[in-house]
């Protein structure tokens, strides 16, 4: 819906907030779960070295238990990586983040168990060595375990918590110092991880913005190329249809000259003059439609939304169609919020098209109330019992110079611009014209307009369509 044509009492639907933030969080999680096989292999080999060192100096059984834990979490991470539910939704993203945090916590807790399993209470030097090893693991984890801040912060905490708790429990000066250093390291690493994540998110945001701008530029280029191709086709078809009446006028003028020179009888001259008049009318009609299309595309006529009474407008259009073939069925109080002039032009072209392709039968202009998410609306339908349109041709009828079943380009049946004008006006009004049709069963063109707000001054005057 064109925002200009939204009723003043209607509240606009809120724009989805945080869409950029959502895209950044999705990208951060993708980076966090991507395979890192070589890094895992190097880390596992280093862990094996640590286990071998403490098996030699302290306890083989404890070292085997610890390296067994490391082996299990390494296999889990390396051979059973987390699979992401693409495409993300807010709910699936939150669930994937929680699962990633859990897996990361298990990974680091297994490493942190070295602070319990490999802790030798009788050797202060080995205690200090173990503390240094775990602090080194902490620095390594900060840059390799995850890019998701909560997961990384939890991982660092679980990695150092066992040795900190053990140190506090032992109470020796050396281990108290290790515990204090561990606590300080956790605080420092939390801040470092948060800052690193902020910078990463900024870089991802810039990259996503660049990608969006690039896609918009490509889309604009494609749209420009398509518009250029459509413009060339438009002028080619216009040139063809303009030449027909111009040539007819020239030929009939020559015939008229010869008839006048030879003293032809009045009926022959009248026939020639009638042919000239028909050609002139066809030329004038085509020229007016081309000028109208030009005014629409140039947005010469600004939209002036107001409350428009539908019944008087439809009744006037039915009278103008003549022959009593156009009926109206509309609630007396129906009023839509739209631009009166543009609505009249849309309906006039739809009625003209319906009458033109309904050699027998009637045309009905019907209005009925609708309830939409954005408020009450009116559905306007132009129904005919004419020749109908095949399903494969229904998308083409709104194209410029498209005439189904008029391959000979008989200008008495129009130029194929009426529905093209409807398409352009509908785009300006922010509405979509739907079509239901079948050969031999007639056609129904329909669209919806928002209802005028309660208390709005209803316009009953019917401004004439502006001349093309």
TrEMBL record:
<keyword id="KW-0418">Kinase</keyword>
<feature type="transmembrane region" description="Helical">
    <location>
        <begin position="128"/>
        <end position="147"/>
    </location>
</feature>
<feature type="transmembrane region" description="Helical">
    <location>
        <begin position="36"/>
        <end position="56"/>
    </location>
</feature>
<dbReference type="InterPro" id="IPR003661">
    <property type="entry name" value="HisK_dim/P_dom"/>
</dbReference>
<dbReference type="GO" id="GO:0007234">
    <property type="term" value="P:osmosensory signaling via phosphorelay pathway"/>
</dbReference>
<dbReference type="InterPro" id="IPR036890">
    <property type="entry name" value="HATPase_C_sf"/>
</dbReference>
<dbReference type="Pfam" id="PF00512">
    <property type="entry name" value="HisKA"/>
</dbReference>
<feature type="transmembrane region" description="Helical">
    <location>
        <begin position="154"/>
        <end position="170"/>
    </location>
</feature>
<keyword id="KW-0067">ATP-binding</keyword>
<keyword id="KW-0902">Two-component regulatory system</keyword>
<keyword id="KW-0812">Transmembrane</keyword>
<dbReference type="GO" id="GO:0005524">
    <property type="term" value="F:ATP binding"/>
</dbReference>
<dbReference type="InterPro" id="IPR003594">
    <property type="entry name" value="HATPase_dom"/>
</dbReference>
<keyword id="KW-0808">Transferase</keyword>
<protein>
    <recommendedName>
        <fullName>histidine kinase</fullName>
        <ecNumber>2.7.13.3</ecNumber>
    </recommendedName>
</protein>
<dbReference type="InterPro" id="IPR004358">
    <property type="entry name" value="Sig_transdc_His_kin-like_C"/>
</dbReference>
<keyword id="KW-1133">Transmembrane helix</keyword>
<feature type="transmembrane region" description="Helical">
    <location>
        <begin position="176"/>
        <end position="194"/>
    </location>
</feature>
<dbReference type="Pfam" id="PF02518">
    <property type="entry name" value="HATPase_c"/>
</dbReference>
<dbReference type="GO" id="GO:0030295">
    <property type="term" value="F:protein kinase activator activity"/>
</dbReference>
<feature type="transmembrane region" description="Helical">
    <location>
        <begin position="63"/>
        <end position="80"/>
    </location>
</feature>
<dbReference type="GO" id="GO:0000155">
    <property type="term" value="F:phosphorelay sensor kinase activity"/>
</dbReference>
<keyword id="KW-0472">Membrane</keyword>
<dbReference type="GO" id="GO:0000156">
    <property type="term" value="F:phosphorelay response regulator activity"/>
</dbReference>
<dbReference type="InterPro" id="IPR005467">
    <property type="entry name" value="His_kinase_dom"/>
</dbReference>
<dbReference type="InterPro" id="IPR050351">
    <property type="entry name" value="BphY/WalK/GraS-like"/>
</dbReference>
<keyword id="KW-0547">Nucleotide-binding</keyword>
<dbReference type="InterPro" id="IPR036097">
    <property type="entry name" value="HisK_dim/P_sf"/>
</dbReference>
<feature type="domain" description="Histidine kinase">
    <location>
        <begin position="237"/>
        <end position="453"/>
    </location>
</feature>
<keyword id="KW-0597">Phosphoprotein</keyword>
């Amino acid at each position: 819906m064109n925002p200009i044509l939204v009723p003043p009492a209607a509240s606009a639907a809120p724009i989805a907030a945080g869409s950029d933030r959502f895209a950044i969080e999705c990208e951060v999680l993708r980076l966090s779960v991507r395979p890192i096989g070589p890094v895992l292999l190097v880390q596992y080999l280093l862990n094996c070295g640590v286990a071998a060192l403490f098996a030699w100096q302290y306890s083989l059984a404890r070292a085997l238990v610890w390296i067994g834990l490391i082996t299990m979490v390494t296999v889990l991470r390396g051979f059973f990586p987390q699979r992401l539910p693409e495409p993300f939704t807010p709910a699936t993203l939150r669930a994937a983040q929680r699962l990633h945090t859990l897996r990361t916590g298990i990974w680091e807790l297994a490493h942190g168990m070295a602070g319990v399993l490999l802790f030798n209470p009788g050797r202060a030097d080995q205690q200090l060595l173990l503390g240094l090893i775990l602090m080194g693991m902490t620095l390594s984890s900060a840059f390799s375990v995850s890019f998701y801040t909560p997961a990384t912060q939890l991982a660092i905490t679980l990695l150092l918590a066992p040795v900190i708790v053990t140190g506090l429990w032992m109470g020796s000066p050396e281990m108290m110092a290790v515990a204090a250093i561990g606590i300080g390291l956790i605080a420092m690493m939390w801040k470092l991880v948060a800052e690193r994540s902020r910078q990463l998110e900024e870089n991802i945001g810039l990259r996503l913005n660049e990608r969006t701008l690039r896609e918009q530029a490509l889309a604009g280029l494609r749209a420009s190329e398509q518009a250029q191709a459509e413009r060339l086709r438009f002028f080619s078809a216009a040139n063809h249809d303009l030449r027909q009446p111009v040539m007819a006028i020239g030929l009939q003028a020559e015939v008229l000259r010869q008839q006048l020179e030879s003293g032809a009888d009045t009926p022959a001259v009248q026939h020639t003059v009638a042919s000239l008049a028909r050609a002139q009318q066809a030329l004038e009609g085509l020229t007016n439609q081309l000028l109208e299309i030009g005014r629409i595309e140039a947005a010469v006529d600004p939209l002036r939304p107001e409350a428009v009474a539908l019944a008087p407008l439809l009744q006037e259009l039915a009278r103008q169609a003549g022959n009593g073939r156009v009926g109206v069925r509309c609630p007396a109080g129906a009023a839509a919020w739209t631009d009166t002039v543009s609505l009249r032009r849309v309906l006039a072209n739809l009625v003209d098209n319906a009458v033109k392709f309904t050699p027998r039968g009637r045309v009905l202009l019907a209005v009925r109330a609708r309830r939409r998410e954005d408020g009450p609306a009116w559905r306007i339908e132009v129904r005919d019992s004419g020749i109908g349109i095949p399903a494969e041709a229904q998308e083409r009828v709104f194209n410029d110079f498209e005439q189904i079943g008029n391959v000979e380009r008989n200008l008495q049946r129009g130029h194929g611009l009426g529905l093209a004008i409807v398409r352009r006006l509908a785009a300006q009004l922010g509405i979509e014209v739907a079509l239901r049709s079948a050969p031999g069963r007639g056609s129904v063109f329909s669209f919806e307009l928002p209802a005028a707000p309660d208390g709005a001054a209803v316009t009953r005057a019917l401004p004439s369509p502006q001349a093309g």
